[in-house]
Amino acid sequence: MAESFARTPTGLPRSRTLIDLEDMAAQTFRRDSNFDEIYKIISGEESLKKNYLKIAGRPNLGLVGQTFMYKATDADELIFERYDTWSACFECLRSSAEKNKNELEICLVTSDTTHLGRAFSFIHRIFFIGHDRFQQAYSLPSQIVIRILHNQWRFSDDIMARITESLCPKEVSLSAWQPKLPSQRNISQIEGSVQVPLKFAFEWINAPYYATDLSVYVLRPYGRYPQVKTLDVILTSMKYDQIRRAIVVVNSHNTLAELRNLLPQVFQHEVSGLPYIMRLFRALCTKTTDETVTFLTKTCDDINYMVYEGRLRPSGSKMQYLRHLEDCHHVAKDCCRKNQRTLQVLLDQVNLIQGPRTDDETSLINEFEMARNDLDYLHDEIESSLQRIPGVCRDIREQLDFVQIRRTNILGILAGLYLPLAFVTSFLGMNLNQYTQPQPSWRNATRIDPANPDNITISHSEIVDSGANQAWSLQLFFEIAVPLMVGTILIPLVIGSIIRAFLRALGRGRTWWRLIFASFVVWSVTITLKSF
């Protein structure tokens, strides 16, 4: 039986006996017409094709709903079951986008790849981690969604580049220094003024949570830069009055789920062009403002809590949390400013459009103005909240110093008690009298006469321990130890005053001290000479 498996099949060369799993998977899935359509869309990119072969026939396990969401006017929302294959889900998106060519369309995509590792098999995940390719592979579903929309919506390569830039995961950290020479500012402003913006970025930050000392020591949650939630809106045309499609890229699964409830506000009326854009941005501005208000509310509550909790139970974790909260405030301020600039750019572009305004458009413009004022107000409130943090940190630091001083005093007193006891114990050698009564002990001895084995003699003798007669008494031990303990504790407290008083007396009676010292020297010399 084993030889039949090892034998080379007749009619095939030796080199064809090895099985390529990816080629076999490709041959299997290509029988499906859905697979053929998606495979044609991504046929120009080898890395996407190879990774797509690994997940095309696998169930999505509910990950599709965490990856993208598509909505169109008068169209049912796409619903996917857990055991629908990835190829079937992508084909459903492609067919829906093909049917709704004349409708308003919007697609939400996330760049978060937290749970997308389950889309691949265990062996593939091990391979990706070993070759440091897991981040690129896990972003495959989002990349395929964008390729499908690119194929159906036919937007430009510039828009495609902006979408790809938003989908690339960014490592958030402190911004690097970049030179802004005065000689180049005017040139950049002139070049940027003629460009019609296609991408509008919104940012906010969620409030952090307090972690205890053990969690701070083990997990170190406050050693990383605050994570910012991003929301990028990419328009598919430079003519705002003719836009019917938009792509929204977020960097969190939770944000994608929350925006699902905001989409019906955009499709309440069958409008296109400028009203469609303005309704979309109104919903996103509401989301951004609400998140900023939530952040500010929680941080203010935490600061108020730390004011008295830090006095009652000061700890290093509270200090680290407040420092991290300070960093979050700085990030929140930057987010407010960026959102204000985004709204201002949008208003400037809307004002450039000529023609009469409808009542709906005028109302939306006024709402944008109010949203910008709200962001300005929130920026000032964040600045006001930020000013309170150093004072709370200072109070906690003072309480920590008080606690440390108290602990040091306790340890000093214990050391003052221990050192004399240790000295006396080592000097006396722990040779102390025993106050208990000596306990007698008995010794039994049995003797057998070798000449007469029947003659057995048994003797009982009592041994009395008279105690350690050469030891010190316990009373003498404490008579020596107690003065030393008192002196060890009191002398450090009064030695400074004694030395200062002695030096002041020495300064006042300088002549007398010189006479006393001279007399002592003469007496010492005289005694020495007499000894010889």
Automatic annotation (TrEMBL):
Top-level taxon of origin: Eukaryota
Annotated transmembrane regions: 410-430, 476-499, 511-529
Ranges in coiled-coil conformation: none
Pfam families (UniProt xref): CorA
Keyword Membrane in annotation: yes
Keywords for the protein's UniProt record, in alphabetical order: Membrane, Transmembrane, Transmembrane helix
InterPro entries recorded: MgTranspt_CorA/ZnTranspt_ZntB
CC terms in the record's Gene Ontology section: membrane
Name of the protein described by the UniProt record: Mg2+ transporter protein, CorA-like/Zinc transport protein ZntB
Lineage: Eukaryota, Fungi, Dikarya, Ascomycota, Pezizomycotina
